[in-house]
Amino acid sequence: ARYTWRRDVSTSHAVPPPPQIIMPAFTMLSVSSPCVSRSNIKAHFASAKTSHGVTQRATQSGKPLSVRCAAGQVKDEAAITGMVFEPLGTLERIPSSHDESLARQHYAPACEAALNDQINIEYNVSYIYHAMFAYFNRDNVALPGLAKYFKEASAEEREHAEMMMEYQNTRGGKVKLQSIVMPDMDFGNTDKGDALYAMELALSLEKLNNEKLLALHKVAEEADDPQFTDYIEGTYLADQVEAIKTVSEFVSQLRRVGPGHGTYQWDLELLEKTA
User: Fold this and answer.
1) Handedness of CA 252, 258, 263, 265 (dihedral sign)
2) Which residues, other chains included, contact 53 with Cβ-Cβ below 8 Å and sequence gap of 6+?
3) What is the dihedral of CA 271, 273, 274, 275, to 10 degrees?
4) Could you read off the pLDDT of 21-74 as tens digits, one per residue?
5) 259-272 pLDDT, tens per residue?
6) Contact 251, 200 (CB under 8 A)
7) Strand, coil or helix: what is 132?
8) Burial class (CB in 10 A: 0-12, 13-18, 19+), 16
């Protein structure tokens, strides 16, 4: 494509221009003729400087001076900055259908499907944590620290799922929600005690979630999608590692104090930490 570049000029000196301004501004106008050489351009502007250092040359008819240039026909490869532009190349087609995303670019179908799977995992983990909250909130269980902890953990996992849904839409993908598994609502019939059993289950879920996030990262890496890998690393992986460390400490502490009064006292301390 050929472009015409026009330098705005003015013959009025009512308001003196500021000093030390050498290169004028250009705006693209229309298709025009072949390009002038760099030497011609430099000579032209050298002859047009005023005492204020501003190019103010005009034609005899008083019309603004135009510099015409055709992309790809530059005689000197060392082009003057701001004067010569490389060809843009092939532009991407913009979808005309309402069923296609306008924002989608370099987003592989494998990444889209893997992210939908991860959304389902986040919702499943949130659902199990919500069931744990309901159990420890019973009057015949009465461990308010664990009830509060799992309620907040459920909300956090659900927030992660919603963040991933927003990212899916940002990249031009389609969110496809899947079924959620019904969780076990009774944790009391174990030799370990309900608190330790629930916390070990939580540790397994956090490790599972981390494995799935690493698998999602691998899909993004294989699809050569650096923005997607950066999103996973910066938003989820560090927090997931910290969550595994925290729940591991809880498991060790509950194993040490044992069921009964020890668990009750530990639960009160957990309630104070999360207050």
Assistant:
1) negative
2) 19, 20, 21, 22
3) 80
4) 444 443 443 334 444 454 554 544 454 444 444 444 444 445 444 444 444 444
5) 899 999 999 999 99
6) yes
7) helix
8) exposed
